[in-house]
Amino acid sequence: MPFLEGYATGLALIVLIGPVLFVLLQATWSRGRAHGLAVAFGIFVSDILAVLLCAYGAGPHLDSPAVRPWLVWGGAALLLGFGLGALKGPALAPPRPPRLELAGLAGDFARGFFVNFVNPFVFMVWLGLIGAATQRHGFDRDLAAYLAGCLLGILTLDVAKALLAERLKVLLRPLVLRRVMQVAGVALIAFALRLAWLGVAGRA
Question: How far is the C-alpha of 41 from the C-alpha of 53, rounded, in Å?
Fold first, then answer.
């Protein structure tokens, strides 16, 4: 099912560790779970906006027969790159997120939204996922279900990070975090190989 496939993809994107992760964890550790959840929902809303911009801005061009093979192989290469990068393990020094001088839950929501939305890499990821998914599901309800699954999978991860932030201190130890990243990396490589196989078989 497209939704479940998207949900699994969203969960596998745990390998993409960027500034928003540390914004979320810092908010939870310093101000409590409610503030971490505010960051998570800020990230979620910014992802929805990024998906809409990518899908409706690029969508009309994604179903062209001339573009389709490039999207299939490009999407497979993107996922494969993420997976191989994850197998190497995360960088031990977290990136420093931009500081926003806002207070309260609204401030943490804004931090999550803007730190995620101003990151060009977020749009690269969504363009790759949308392009690859369009070739498998078309530009219709199945694609919408897939993207909804991706968004919900990412939200699930971010909510879990906020609720389990104290325990995540253990996972942030280099050896344990490396193992988690490697498992997720294998999952992304599997997605990439499946997409490549669909392209070879002419079903993408």
Answer: 18
